[in-house]
Structures are given as structure tokens and as C-alpha cells.
Amino acid sequence: MKNAEFSGKPRNSSPVSGEDIPAALRDFPDVAPKRRLSLLVLGIGGVLVCGLLAVISGFLFAWTAPKKNLVSQPSPTNATPANSQNNNTDQVLGHLAYTEAPESELAPISADGRQRLRKVAAQKYQEMVAAARSAGVILTPISGFRSVKEQEQLFFGVGAQRNQTPAQRAALSAPPGHSEHHTGYAVDIGDGTAPATNLNENFENTKAFQWLQTNAARFGFEMSFPKDNSQGVSYEPWHWRFVGDRDSLETFYRAKNVKPTQVPQ
């Protein structure tokens, strides 16, 4: 006999309302999206903050770096005058400092023995005089080695007699301690046939000067102060110096950093 209450359909086949779902199960789907949204917002905010900090740091670095360089590195324009001062510390009124040659190194170049040069320079000078004489030119030594004491009289004594200032006197004669004649390598030369041209620019018109321009280098001599020389010393066509060995060359060039002036032939 069949049970009248059994219909053959499941008892739970009717739809289940939301009120029948436990509260824990109903709230779970809403919590996960909110957490993901919060994490996303935090991530974006962190990226923006990091980017902003990077921009600010770069701006501050660019702003402060040039100032540091200006403080720590000297400018090139400041370095040049310092070097120029170092190169010119041994100059007085355009004349370079020279030490006095020892007496034992000197030899006569004039008949009376009053004019002297260092031995090697004296020998070459005598050879030059002989070569010039064979060409009909008379070279006369006016002044050779000169001590510092003699230079003091020539500079200060003569300057006072002529009422010349030190600057005016320096255009004609070097201050004591700054004359090439101290070295024993320098000599003032005149023309034996034209004494009126001694120690003045008219000497450039003599046969002696013309011969020296063409032949002096063969004997190791050169004009010390040609026109427009690098030292700014007045033109002295009569003043010649020996540069024919290592010591004389270094005396006038290496130690003083003086560049040779090209003399037109």
C-alpha cells in the first residue's frame, strides 16, 4: 500500500530565498572586491609618491650641482694670471735676472785686456773678429763682462747725472743683477771704421752690423734685443750674446723661458 504523502518529487525542490542563506555566506562575496580595490589604490598611490620624490630629488641635484662645481673648481681665468706672475717674478723693468760669472772663467778679448768674456765665448769671438777682418770689416769690442758693482754705477750713477727715472734708465741699461753682461756671454760690438755709431741705432747702417747679421750665427752669436723682441727691451743692434754651447743656451733660454725672435736677413 502506497503512502499517500509521498509525491515522488524532492521536498527541497522549491526555490531557496536569500533569507535562508547564512549571514557569513551572504557577506563574503562583497568583502573580496573591496580589499582588492584598497590594495590597488595603495599601489597607485605608492607609485605616484615614488615618482614625485624622484622628480624632486633630480631637481634638487640639478640645482645644487653647479654651485658645488663653482666652489670646488678654480676658473681658468684665475689660473692664467698666477702663471704669468710666476714667470715674471725675476724681472725688473723688463730685464731678467742673471748671476755673475766667476773671474776664473773669464778671458780677454781686447788688446788692453779690459774687455773680457767667458773662455769659450772669448775664443769664438776672436775667431769671428778674424773672419770679419778677412772680409774687410773691423769689429771692435766696446763692453764685455760687467760685474754687478759696475752695473750699479752705470745704472744709478749715470741715471742721476742725466736726471733719468729708473724706467727711463732701464730703456738704455739694465738694472744691477739683471744685465746679460754679468754672464760673461754678452758683448757690445762697434764698427772700427765708424765709431760715431757706437751704442746707438745708427750702428745698423754699418758694414759691421750687416756682416754680423749674415755671419754671427756661424760663431754662436746672436743679437740679444732685435726689434719687437719678446722681453720688450729697446732695440740694440750693437748688443750680441754667445749661445754656442749648452750652458750659454740654457742661461738665456731654458731658465728664463724666453723665445727667440726671428731677425730678418
Automatic annotation (TrEMBL):
A GO biological process held by the record: proteolysis
An example molecular function term from Gene Ontology annotations: carboxypeptidase activity
Keywords linked to the UniProt accession: Carboxypeptidase, Hydrolase, Membrane, Protease, Transmembrane, Transmembrane helix
Domain D-alanyl-D-alanine carboxypeptidase-like core: 115-245
Pfam families: VanY
Alphabetized InterPro entries for the sequence: DD-CPase-like, VanY-like_core_dom, VanY/YodJ_core_dom, Zn_M74/Hedgehog-like
Cited SUPFAM superfamilies: Hedgehog/DD-peptidase (SSF55166)
Region (Disordered): 1-21
Any coiled-coil regions, as ranges: none
Bilayer-spanning residue ranges: 39-63
PANTHER family noted in UniProt: D-ALANYL-D-ALANINE CARBOXYPEPTIDASE, PEPTIDOGLYCAN L-ALANYL-D-GLUTAMATE ENDOPEPTIDASE CWLK
Name by which UniProt lists this protein: Peptidase M15B and M15C DD-carboxypeptidase VanY/endolysin
Species: Fischerella thermalis JSC-11
